[in-house]
Design brief:
The chain is mostly helical. It contains 17 helices and 4 strands. It has 2 domains: 104 residues, D-Maltodextrin-Binding Protein, domain 2 (3-Layer(aba) Sandwich), CATH 3.40.190; 244 residues, no CATH class. β1, α3 and β2 form a beta-alpha-beta unit. α11 packs parallel to α16 and α14 packs across α15. About 1% of the residues have low confidence.
């Protein structure tokens, strides 16, 4: 075990000390945030610093409704109904106010209004003001009724009651979490499993493996590589989760302070994944990673060049690609017979059973059964991959055929 630990330590430290790992782990999240936040900040600075806006009401009654909606978006509103538009325009030109909004009968009928400002307003500012006009018009039209306009504009709500034993769908937040999480699993499992293959192929082509195998067995070398690269993956995922949580906790309030019209983004925190999401992600990441990394290690041992590896990994890629294609259909109808069967196939479970579990559509016994099947498959895949690895790691200069591969398994 000490020799396996030495391989794990070497694989782990060699990767986490590289500049590319540091950049991908710490730099990529900040780049994503910067790509989102910088345009918003620049747009804020390009707009008038004074967020005071004059509502020029030509109807005589809808102005207060518009003013209230704008104030909820972070604007300081001055209402005017009898002041001539030319006087208000002069105040805008002098920089006394940020702009003025003209509302008339067309605003009540079609939500149409006219905004006059010195500089070109950002798309977000235009959207916020347009939404305020529409909300005010609806509230004015529905005055005296029991209609909750804010709830209606927020999209309402759909309460789904699923009769026991029948199929049912998922709500939008669960759908989004299931799809995003499954796609993330696809990316990270593929990324780190391929890293195992490239590590094996690099040592084999450089003839370093012949020296390494003088002090440990091929099985120990393969196990050390898989565990070492897997530890790197867990480290990177943990850092991303911590940074993502910190950015949401600290960055979202700052963004809302800079752009009050984005106040609806505050609701995003209620849709963030909970502890069960990360628990499922960890379980299915480990199961999928160990299965596919063993397969990719065998592919690396079979090949003698990167070109051969690109072709030899095609069957393994199919096993990863099929569940990704079926993902949308499984999420939309998670309790269909085909969805259940596909999610219980061990090679597909890391992606499909995860999606069903996160969406709340898979009972616990199905999740437990899929995990048990993954463990059994891992044992079988590791046994086969280990035998291929044992023979193939020292084979060079000969193109692999299916007959040759079967001979390796018999010899091992």
């Amino acid at each position: 075990m000490r020799r396996v630990w030495a391989v794990i330590r070497r694989e782990y430290l060699q990767r986490v000390r590289s500049r590319w790992f540091v950049f991908a782990t710490a730099g990529v999240p900040f780049l994503l945030v910067a790509a989102t936040a910088i345009p918003v900040v620049l747009a804020s600075r390009n707009e008038a610093v004074d967020r005071t806006i004059v509502v020029l009401d030509l109807t005589g009654d809808v102005g207060p409704w518009v003013a209230r909606a704008l104030e909820e978006g972070g604007y300081v509103v001055e209402s005017a109904s009898t002041v001539a538009e030319e006087r208000v325009r002069q105040r805008v030109e002098s920089g006394e106010v940020g702009g003025y909004l003209v509302v008339d009968r067309e605003s009540l009928v079609a939500g149409h209004a006219r905004l006059v400002v010195n500089g070109s307003p950002s798309a977000l500012r235009q959207l916020g003001i347009r939404q305020a006009v529409i909300q005010a018009a609806l509230e004015h039209q529905l005055v005296g009724t029991a209609t909750d306009v804010d709830q209606m504009l927020a999209g309402g709500a759909l309460e789904v009651e699923i009769i026991a034993g029948s199929g049912g769908g998922t709500n939008v937040p669960a759908y989004a979490a299931a799809y995003a999480g499954s796609f993330a699993l696809y990316m990270v499992i593929l990324l780190y499993a391929v890293a195992v293959m490239r590590s094996v192929l690099e040592e084999k082509t450089n003839r370093v493996v012949e020296v390494i195998l003088s002090s440990l067995s091929p099985w120990q070398l393969m196990l050390g590589k898989i565990l070492g690269v897997g530890a790197v993956g867990l480290t990177q995922l943990a850092v991303w989760v911590i940074l993502g949580g910190a950015m949401v906790a600290l960055g979202l309030p700052a963004l809302l302070a800079a752009r009050p019209e984005l106040g609806e983004l505050a609701a995003i925190t209620s849709g963030l994944p909970g502890p069960s999401f990360f628990a499922y992600f960890l379980v299915f990441f480990l199961g999928g990673y160990f299965i596919f990394s063993a397969l990719y290690a065998a592919v690396g041992a079979m090949c003698t060049s990167d070109e051969e590896a690109q072709q030899a990994q095609f069957p393994v890629m199919i096993l990863i690609f099929v569940p990704v294609v079926a993902l949308v259909g499984v999420i939309e109808n998670p309790n269909a017979t085909l969805s259940v069967v596909l999610s219980l196939i061990p090679f597909f479970s890391p992606f499909l059973m995860f999606a069903r579990a996160v969406a709340g559509a898979a009972p616990f016994w199905q999740v437990a059964l899929s995990v048990a099947l993954m463990v059994l498959t891992l044992v079988g895949v590791t046994w086969i991959a280990g035998r291929i690895y044992q023979v193939g790691i020292l084979m060079t200069g000969k193109r692999l055929t299916l007959t040759e591969l079967m001979r390796w398994l018999r010899q091992a």
